[in-house]
Write a structure and sequence with these properties.
The complex is a heterodimer of chains A (about 190) and B (about 325). Chain A contains ten helices and no strands. With about 190 residues, chain A is an all-alpha fold. Chain A folds into two domains: about 15-105, Fumarate Reductase Iron-sulfur Protein, Chain B, domain 2 (Orthogonal Bundle); about 115-190, no CATH class. In chain B, about 55% of the residues are buried. In chain B, strands 2-1-3-4 form a four-stranded parallel sheet. Chain B is built from 13 helices and eight strands. Chain B has helices at about 25-35, 50-55, 60-75, 85-100, 100-110, 125-140, 175-185, 205-225, 235-240, 245-250, 260-265, 285-290, 310-315; strands spanning about 10-15, 40, 80, 120-125, 150-155, 185-190, 230, 280. The chains are: A mainly alpha (about 190), B alpha/beta (about 325). The structure holds iron/sulfur cluster (2 copies). Chain B: It comes from Geomonas oryzisoli.
Chain lengths: ~190, ~325
Amino acid sequence: MKNKLMHLSNETMNIGFVKKVEALSGSSVRRCFQCGKCSAGCPMSTFMEHPPNRVVRLLQLGQGQRILAGRSIWYCASCETCTTRCPNKVDLAAIMDALRKLSWDADGPSKESYVQLANRLFIENIRTYGRQYELRLGAAFNMKSGQFLKDLMLGPKLISKGKLKMFHSKNKNIAEIEGIFKRIEEMRKKGEAL
Amino acid sequence: MTPGKKRLSYSYYPGCSLHASGREYDISTRALFKALNVGLKEVPDWFCCGATPAHNVDELLSLSLCAKNLSLAEEVEGDLAVACAACFSRLKTTQHHLKGDETKRKQVEVAIDGPAALNKPVKHILEILAREYGLGKLEESVKKPLMGLKVAPYYGCLLTRPPEVPELDDCEDPSIMEDLLRALGAEPVKWSHRMECCGANFTLSRPGVVLKLSNAILESARIAGADCIMVACPLCHGNLDIRQKEIKEAYGAPDSTLFGNIFGSELHGGSAPDQRDLPIFYVTQLAALAMGVASESLGFESVITDPKPLLRDKQLL
Ligand code: SF4
Ligand code: SF4
């Protein structure tokens, strides 16, 4: 996207998308005056093609698709530095969350799906076991991402140090967690929650 | 315990890491609280708080998981003590958001099928030690001061940010870890990276990112002359301790090219890059050590970067 002229028109400006981001994040994007403080402190901005301040600028211009086409949102570490430092109380960390959710809902796995995959397996673990089962998390990630050799050497070492549990017991009240997942799904189906 | 004063006692949310990869944080927390005669009772049947992945993909789910945990915690007396910085941040965020947002609170209450219990104070171990037990009393309880131990206190991101959520300390210039270290007789070093992010959430999906960020943190601590780093989060510990060897392989080897030599020697004062191992301690391990708790009950055998040579060297073992 760099060095290319951006054409603004009714067709490229998706204000509905921006409104969704604002509703989900509870943060205004219009407050931003592009001081760049968020990007200056962002530990991940060197990995992003649109650093945090540009993400907000693109939102101001209704260019949500440009953000979603890139990988910036999947390189945000949720460290809250941007939110903490913004002089105008733009909650960028929450905006990043909202963008990830919208991307996830709309496209499913993207080219940055390793991050989604890890997040999704993490949440699956909660639904199945109630708690994290790190050995399964790592193994499932390696299987599904095709990175069979990754961290292979780390595994046995961690097990021998007692850091990864070989077996796992479910929470006794696991049905309550399933209830939470179900009720949220229902609320969304009925349009009662975002 | 001062006579006439009620004994401090807390309910305890350990979180998933403390039952697995961060088990030594759990072990040392329990040992320390016992040594200080502070009560600690685990919340029965707590769930995973969802940490970063849950709010990354589904804010409502994340809030609901935490709200459920907060209502489980109501069953145990005492303020809620949390050791993991990520769990601490999520539980506090949930209280903060749901108190200020009626609509979300109602949605969460539908999701957890009950009222959201938002009033139990959630406290990180650091503030329990430094503020509630108190630095003065802590200093008095020290049996084996950590003399001569130069420690880089590492805050990371979520302990202090954003300021209105954890309400733990100044979000840009905190001092609670330094104060605690001084009370234990150790010497906190001044260093540049104490609040930089280690990339915790990427440990599975993007280890390269973690190596880069964690390398910068370790390097900064070495330059400041630290013998070790102190953390208050199992995710920070995982990245800095477990991956130290990998980090060295990726960043430590001297560059043999001409430019590598020139810039390398400039950066490292003419000598080979400093590749010292830096043991990573949990705040509770160092505090318990100073309280005279036997090192066998602090989980040092579970750590990858062996801290024993350093501790022996400083005559702390
Ligand atoms: S710090 Fe805030 S005002 Fe400044 S560029 Fe970032 S979002 Fe905009
Ligand atoms: S929360 Fe994300 S965007 Fe904000 S500073 Fe941290 S890594 Fe950067």
